[in-house]
Amino acid sequence: MLEEKLLIWKFNRGSNEVLTTIYERYKHDLVTLATALLSDVSAAEDVVHDVFVSFIKSCGKFRLTGSLRGYLATCVANSARNKNRAIQKHRNLNAEKIDADLPELPDPETCAISTEEERRLLCALQQLPYEQREALILHIYSRMKFKTIAEHQDVSINTALGRYRYALDKLRLVLNGEVKK
Amino acid sequence: MKPSVNVYKLIRKLQLKASADLDRRVHNDISSALAESEKTELAHSKPNIWRIIMKSPFTKLAVTAAIFIAFGIGVSVGRWSKPTSPPHLLNVTGYTSAVLVHPTTPKAEDSFWRQKALAAMQPRPYTQIQTTKTSLLNAYKQYLKEKHYD
Questions:
Q1: pTM for the structure as a whole
Q2: What is this model's ipTM?
């Protein structure tokens, strides 16, 4: 926590090394989070890039209230939600081309998805509704509290809990079905 | 197999790597943003005094107090000081007296126009010298004209 405060202090003073350090420290987590939310690696990388560009622009006036990881994760979640809305809107406009426009996970050789297990999990997550997927990923992966998730989704805590539970059940069902096959 | 444990662990273990393209883009942005901020810093290197004052609550309070004190001093000085009569007005008074005692002036002591002229010749503290002289002459001319017609 103290180290993060020091990093932010240096960041506000315009240190190049600190920006690079922050990026190097959190880039994998943020890309993973965005990919899990969007199920599209290139869109996820765009989201992370946008978040870092905004973060760089806040240099000199940035104030950290919680943890830096939590802040960046929230930024990525917000940005991913906007991106998802844009994708949905685009799909609705081109309803005929739905099959062609579905985001596909690239080959493991060309992208960062290393194992088959990860690929299976991302495919299973893709089948969940966005809100449920968001609640699940933010709670399990980003370790956010349900209160924070509820505030982020602008719903009650019980709704956030319900979404999490439904997502977990559905994910178990999907993964077990695949295992049975 | 325990699926619940697996799902939780699977998500926790999930770790994707950022591509080299993303790294390159972000590093370029960092470099350009820093170059831009350095330019801006050079352009705004002169400190803004008003901004410095308004940033700190203590200096803000001090400046407000100083303004109030200065205003109070200004009001008190203005209230208790008396306006000094300019020296040229004294000269005018002397001049008018001389006119009145001139031997060619008519002797009608209590006529209306004489009183009027005397009233006009009274020294006014806030009028300019030119105005006073003009009004004095006009009054005197009017007085002479009146006497001539009488």
A1: 0.59
A2: 0.72
